[in-house]
Amino acid sequence: MSLEEIREQNKRLVAETALEVFTRQGAGNTTVADISRACGLTERSIYRYYKTKVDLIQAAVYLYYDKMTREADRRSREMFRPGMTGLEQIHQMLRFYSHMYLEYPDQIRFCADAEVILSRAGRERDDVNWPPEQFERSNSPLVRAIRQGLADGSVSPKVDVKNLYYNAYDSILGVMQKMSWSRLQVSREEAGTRMDQLCDIFTAAFRGDFLT
């Protein structure tokens, strides 16, 4: 293994460990020393790979979103059946994204925390590349489903699908983040019901139910 390969391997190890520690302790409560101890590396070694804690937070966020992107692709292959309309696929993907709160509440909380920290550090949205991907260049399961829905007629051609795509993603993420930080305990059943209702609303919007 070359020195460059070893460096990249160690860099990913640090990012993966950082994601675990940030998720468990909170980004604001975690020090680089905490991560170095968890990695079994010195702080000096950590700083060879990431110049600042903010860089490390950004790397951990990228890693989480990359994992979720891969999971979305995998789940879409499991959920999508031959003959499903694009609208049916949209509904399935919205439910998948929304139920991440039930499966990964700590990670959702970390991402909300990280977004604030990175913003305060001057990392602009385009620099950090927060999801969702730009609609025009995305090949995500949700965007593929939207395109299929337009092709098969299950999505109304009168709907502004681009902005509806952004609104659906941001709304679902916003509700998930709010529930993750809420002082009022939200039961798993209530959280699931709320997310399902939100998915139903956006599915109806893609169908064109709210057009005037």
Automatic annotation (TrEMBL):
Start-end of DNA-binding region: 31-50
Pfam families attached to this UniProt entry: TetR_N (PF00440)
Keywords annotated in UniProt: DNA-binding, Transcription, Transcription regulation
Domain HTH tetR-type intervals: 8-68
GO molecular function: DNA-binding transcription factor activity; transcription cis-regulatory region binding
SUPFAM superfamilies found in the cross-reference section: Homeodomain-like, Tetracyclin repressor-like, C-terminal domain
Protein known as: TetR/AcrR family transcriptional regulator
Organism: Pseudoflavonifractor capillosus
Lineage: Bacteria, Bacillati, Bacillota, Clostridia, Eubacteriales
